[in-house]
User: Fold this.
Amino acid sequence: MLSVSLAWKLFWRDWKSGELRVLIFALWIAVGGLTAVTLLVDRIDRGMTKEASQVLGADRIVSGPRPINDSIKKTATDLGLSISNNLWFSTVAVAGEEFELSSIRAVDNFFPLAGELEIGDKAFAEGKITQGAPESGNVWVSPRLLNLLNIENSGQIQIGIKQFKVNGLIIKEPGGSSFFNFSPTIIMNLQDVPATEVVQPGSRLNYRLAVSGEESALIDFDEAIKPELDNSQRLLGATSGAPQLGSALGRAKNYLNLSGVLGLLLGGIAIAIAANRYANRHFDHSALLRCMGLKKNQVLFTFCWVLLMAGFSGSLLGGITGYFINELLVMSLADLLPEQVPPPNFDTFLVNLVAGLTVLLGFALPALIRIRSVQPMRILRKDLDPMSLSGWFTIGTAVFTLGVVLYWYAKNLTLVLAVILGGGLLTLICLMLSAGFLWLAHKATKNSSIAIKFGVEHLRRHRSASLIQITAFGLTLTLIATILLVRNELIEDWQAQLPEKAPNHFMVNIRPEEVEPLTQLFAEKNVTASDVFPMVRGRVVELNGKDPKEYLGEGSRGHNSLRRELNLTWSDTFPEANSLVEGEWQMEPSAQPVISIEDRMAERLQLKLGDTMTFSVGSDRITATINSIRKIEWDSFQPNFYVIFNRGSLDQLPATYITSFYLSPEEKPLLNNMVQQFPTVSVIELDLILTEVRKVLEKASLAVEIVLVFVVLAGLAVLFATTRATLDEKLYESALLKTLGANKAFVRKTTLVEYWVLGVLSGGLAAVASEGLAYVLYEQVFKMSAQFHWWLWLGAPLIGLLLIVPAGTLGNRQVFSLPPVAILNKG
Amino acid sequence: MLSVSHLTKKVSTYNGELIILNDINFEVEPGESVAIVGASGSGKSTLLSLMAGLDLPSSGSVDISQQRITDLAEDQRAEFRANNVGFIFQSFHLLTTLTALENVALPLELKQGKSAQDEAKKLLEQVGLGDRLTHYPNQMSGGEQQRVAIARAFAAKPKILFADEPTGNLDTKTGQHIADLLFELNQSQGTTLIMVTHDLKLAGRCQRQIELSAGQVKNNDKPTESNEDFKESVNA
Assistant:
């Protein structure tokens, strides 16, 4: 108790005298920045997930060939989640003499739980946002079904044995367009399904339970139902259900996590420097307390308490500031942020407070241990500094704390290890290079003016302090540069992935004789289209001559390709967005089937080059040998195939063709021409889903930019803390120099020289380090190919100068104005 | 040489205005050595800082060699110090990051703007530290550090030297050696010496003592017989 009450008095005294100002300021900035970043990241993250769920039509979908268990529905409703029951199946819609295979979505009145259902009267025109199912006896249909069935809106169609009236066209539907859904959609009321008598034992049905609600309840829901799902049932999340969005969202989250982590790292540096300064200034206090009879540990606990009190004040202040900055940002960026920004999460706020305190203790511990070891004799002999700790202990404590806290935030061991190893490597490089650079600077300025020489010598003489400063500045600049690099290339990569004229329509069911006139039509109308691929639907029935279940063994998850029909194609050319992983692409046209398969499929199905796969296509069985393995960019919006045959091997089978093409909104009416000219062809409109994807990407890029601002601010806090840490000495030296006859300009010049050298050196080091760090991040975390950045080697030293010189000048302004009389006050 | 007239220094405190020095008047001749004595808080150090142009008075003036330094701007006063003034402090105030040689050369370099290591080396040899040129202050004893400080003070050949308790941090024997060195150099270079001290014995070695009490001159003694005798006995 003695420690606490004494600590409180010390804290209060230090607070009033301004001793704790730097430490509290460092914590304030660090926790404030961190809170603003993490709250924003968390909210944008949840907002983006929410937006992605609009593409899916719900936050979660449980789907399977049998009715969803009531217990699963009860779990959802018990957790306060909204549910909607849907049944998807394919059947033929008939109107007079015409008939067309259609995708039926039988929905209840709660459909859709997320996203927009837009129903209109005219194709490709604006409709009305609608909620719920069509009235019993009515259906809404894809506009092209009217052409295919040769009827008008408000016409009659027959599904099974029941007649329905078409009373709306589907302009936009959530979760609608899918690569594998080639037939036109019909939305009907779930209650009407029994009357159609389409659903019979053995029918291929897809029962879907859509679930939406609070994030925490959804997480509980996932946990609760996973054990209940059988092999045929799947749980789709916001990202897993819309694979086109998955990788972009995943990268955005990785980036945001990384930024949060880097902000924290910068905060840690600022805190370490400030805590060290506090401890150094309290050695006399400690000696006095020891003289007065306090034991070593009592001294340690007393100062621990003081630091905790300061830590709590700084963190709380930071937390509150961060919260308001975050609110302000969300308010001012309302138009640009995801449409529904969820409220801030109080847990995030608390986590940041605890993280602030943890980082404070972890980084300040070595300094505190030195306070503990101050000898009472110091009261008589000021030169008796406490023993210095082993560098390994200091570094070890900091790195351990950092590792724990980083992992706590990022939950990604690779990322944490990359940051720590990158940091460690950077520190080593910094120490070696800056020592060398300082020596070079010393040699180069030997015959310069006294002010320049004095500034450079000052850095060289304060070797350890200079190395710490260069490391801290260098690290800050590295982090800023790394974020800039990663941000630029993430955005460029996303844009490259979705180029302006990315195909936004797929055309399937093209008959062989239609291929020629269709390509001509594209050429006439100047439409950008991909290659035209033949396509045969087939199912995998054997792997290396064995039944897949038997081949893969019990407990294997298998692969999607075993659960449904695959689109098989043949080709002589290597498709775009594909890259060869293994084997040879060259496949000679022959009747002997050889195939190229996707790499992940090969892995899941435990297949290698030379193995065989058997497909059932209609009544035929075809066995083919694997000749090559490919990697596919599924995000490319090109026709992509798990399995590609050599030409000639599927000739005997009836094939249709597939292509993808780009139409601008103004060119949309062209679709009517195409559908009229090729009435049996099916067009899948991906432009709506593409717009959604682009919107999510734009918002992710914005988040990236906002977060960058905060990391730069946190970096400036480090600069400020470092400047403050050397302020006492600078004040003393400046007063002494002025006493000995130096003028203000001399003092200013020596200080400027120091910060110029610091800026250039740390910038140079940052260029080396960030290039290396970015390389690791690209290769290991973002799975992108790394690049060399020449501009970094000029830009980093320049940014170093632009940040460090003004920050140093500002932080040292007292040094220039302090009257020399201060020297006499020191005795 | 030095003339102090109607010098007053006031500072504002929470309890109102505090008068530290009140209407101080005296003159010092060229080459004279003067001790300023008085109890703690009597205003000795403040007077020293005003005379050296480290601070400005609330009213009154200080003239050194016909130059009114209280009218000069800060940078002009700095230039004046570089050319005319030397300092010795109780806590030595050496730059810990510079060697003995570099510390001594510093005022010369500030004055001339170029390296002055040869002159500095001579001075250090004069104070008996010719073998410690490359040593840093923390590698030296208190007495050695003060000898470096004395060498530094004389390096720029100042007209006037201000010493603030120059032996205050040293044991009696070392203090005595330092005082000897100080007076020796003072005499050989003909420098005017103004010294603030508590030590009456040290004050007694000066030609004159000015005693301050509560911010005012209580006593401004002319040289006495005993002082002269003492000085002679020391120098003998």
Notes: The two ends of chain A are 38 Å apart (CA to CA). The interface with chain B takes residues 383, 449-450, 457-458, 461-462, 733, 736-746, 819-821, 823-824, 826-827 of chain A (CB under 8 Å). Residues 177 and 686 of chain A are 6 Å apart (CA to CA). Chain A has three domains: 2-50+247-496+694-825, 60-236, 505-685.
